[in-house]
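Same chain as my last thread, 325 residues:
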Amino acid sequence: MIPVLAGLDIGGTKCAVVLGLEVDSGIELIAKKSFPTPDTPEKALELMMDELEKLLFDQEELKLIAIGISCGGPLDSKRGLILSPPNLPHWDSIDCLTPLKHRFKVPVAVQNDANACALAEWKWGAGKGTNNMIFLTFGTGMGAGFILDGRLYSGTNDMAGEVGHVRLESDGPTGYGKSGSFEGFCSGGGIARLSQTMVKEWFAEGKVTSICSSSEDIESITAKTVGEAAQAGDELAREIYKVVGQNLGRGLAFLVDILNPEKIVIGSIYLRQKELLKPFVIEELQKEALPYSLEVCSVVPSGLKENVGDLASLSVARYALDIKG
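reply #2:
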């Protein structure tokens, strides 16, 4: 029998069930099933368990050894409770571990999605071999997962890593309910809001930009459209990414000074726009971070690239085995 890990990814619009096989080079995704998130937690858990059974039944040579769950927070990882995440209505103190343990008789663990991605990058990606590593999501929002002294650090009540809530400027785009926050400047939604403001000012000066053709189109601006315009050389789009890069560097400097990591791994937007962002990130880090701490820290894009989301829940399954042992 071939030992495999299973992962359940619970999202606001879709869920996924995956199987993974650990190999010498890391982890190999061997099966995946995605579907829209059902309207109640009970239906969602039942459907995920049914789909997992089907995946295992289709490959009889596989032996399930652990299950991991990746989900947006807040949650209580020790008790296995999902605590009313904003993108999951009706998931109020839902026990997601007990049903899986009873049905599959293997270790099960749950972590928020940022911690899960951090574990995946640490085990199989860009953070492999480090003792002190930070993972930043830099996608729809800005969250972090911390590996400190060779173990996941989740804080007193699983709220460690909420770096998006830190205010970088007294004013600026809103993210995580706070204007000028790290998430306000460094997230998909934050970049869109920053761009809308800067485009309005640009149009008021009588200038043109390829980001959008007129003031009537401003509300349709997204981080993706700004990134594409910047890569094509648009002056304003590149100025927007300069502001984003400077604030990303400022946020990283806090983390470097406080946590003294070996590596900071950044996903999503940094992975796609590294060439635009990196010069401003490095310049700001060199201005703001302690040199002695900065010289031992490297900033890199996700090693698992666009697959990190699929592999995150599998890393939680691996973690379930590690903490059991």
